[in-house]
Specification:
This protein has about 130 residues and is α+β, with helices and mostly antiparallel strands. The chain has one domain. Helix content is about 15%, strand content about 25%. It contains 1 helix and 5 strands, in the order E-H-E-E-E-E. Strands 1-2-3-4-5 form a 5-stranded mixed β-sheet, with helices on one face. The relative contact order is 0.21.
């Protein structure tokens, strides 16, 4: 189980929960309701996200599949059709994305350095896993 997900605002943390509509670009174009995850919610999101990464990249060549622990995560908790969902944006390039804890990055291409998944907390499942292209 991944224990790196945390609500605490720690500069060393690899997770940022983003709910400020002004910093979420077009994400809230279709989603305008969000919720605040608890520590327990973040642990569940982390566990499901890690499982999704390992399942979805199991057949990738080692050169493409990175170490999961090298990523950092932007979480956008939103409500759709009454379901509490969490859009997880995984990034590995912290140096060039200095404001990642406050600003949602929608990166085109970038290869395996960037991937996304949606977590459904009610069903403890994930969907829409995608890894950016080269």
């Amino acid at each position: 189980m991944l224990l790196l997900f945390s609500c605490k605002d720690n500069s060393d943390s690899n997770v940022a929960v983003l709910t400020d509509k002004e910093n979420l670009e077009n994400f809230y174009k279709d989603h305008d309701t969000f919720w605040n995850p608890t520590e327990k919610d973040l642990e569940l999101i982390g566990s499901i996200t890690e499982d999704a990464f390992h399942r979805e990249t199991a057949d990738f060549e080692d050169a493409v599949r990175r170490d999961y622990n090298k990523y950092f995560f932007q979480i956008v908790p939103y409500v759709e059709d009454g379901k509490r969902l969490a859009y997880v944006n995984a990034l590995c390039d912290r140096e060039n994305l200095k404001n990642w804890k406050n600003y949602f990055y929608n990166v085109n291409d970038g290869g395996d350095c960037f991937w996304q998944v949606v977590v459904d907390l009610k069903s403890n499942t994930y969907f829409d896993f995608s890894m950016n292209g080269p």
